[in-house]
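Researcher: I'm preparing a figure for a lab meeting and need a structural model of a single chain. I don't have an experimental structure, so a prediction will have to do for now. The sequence is pasted below. Please return the structure as tokens so I can convert it later.
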Amino acid sequence: MISAVLVFNNNGQPRMTKFYENLETSTQQTLLKQIFDLVAARPASACNFLPLPPLLAPNGNEASPDVPTQIVYRHFATLYFILISTSTESPLALIDFIQVFVEALDRLFENVCELDLIFGFETLHAVLSEMIVGGVVVETSLDKIIEGVRASGAVQSRRKAVNARDAGSLSRGSAFAGIWGR
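Model: Understood. Here is the structure written out token by token.
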């Protein structure tokens, strides 16, 4: 089961946080900082799997498969996509899940970048809702995910998003290049 889906930029600012278990806000904030610090400190050549930080790590006596135990992440240009899950989830399947998630965002936003996630947060959450329900992965077919998001009407038109960015005096400089590095 997936316990949380997190998206951070390179500066550690959360761009999306979705927890599928009840945690106090202070615990969530501490966890966000710990996880970003762990992930950001790793070299690009390091493995994308980590044990959970001490804040939520199970005690040595607990062997329950329902307790979150692992972090799986991918770093694309300016964004980190991070999943916290139980040991029942395959880390390789979670890496594939992140890839499908990013590809769906890329198709819906037409070369997604960090600002698209900020101004198009409805689409971001709609994609995640098509893929995960209550911490359980329910869909990984890219075409079905995109079809479901478009059918829900959560896709913000590109023109509307660009106008919103321009109105806020933000530009698409090199710092906000698409997450695929194009």
